Amino acid sequence: MSIQELVDAGFHFGHRTSKWNPKMKPFIFGKRNLIHIIDLRETTKGLVTACKFLTSLVQTKKNVLFVGTKWQAQDIVVREAKRCGMHYVSER
User: What is the DSSP string of 45-57?
Assistant: First the structure.
């Protein structure tokens, strides 16, 4: 995924600046209108690391549990878990 695709999908919008955790500072690019803006370069690094880890699990025949209980993620979680033949949790 390119940084532009992440921007188009709204990945850069964080939480309100009043509700932040200081441990997140390395991943915050800045703030705008009281909302933190996520550093998408750090996001892409994390996605690459996660993909490599998941690839290694699948190559060694390990299971991956897909979890997404928010309504925005439920359909995607179910569809992709079924496509991969993995288990999933899509409801609380």
Answer: HHHHHHHHHHHHH
Count of domains observed in the chain: 2
Q: What is the pLDDT of residues 62-72, one digit of tens each?
A: 999 999 999 99
For residue 85, what are its two tokens?
């033949």
Q: How many residues does the chain have?
A: 92
* 29 and 18 belong to one structural domain: yes
Find out whether 44 and 1 touch, Cβ atoms under 8 Å. yes
Q: What angle do CA 41, 20, 25 make, to 5 degrees?
A: 40
- Report the distance separating Cα 45 and Cα 52, nearest Å: 11
pTM above 0.85, yes or no: no
What residues contact 48, with CB distance under 8 A and at least 6 apart? none
| Residue 2 and residue 45 share a domain | yes
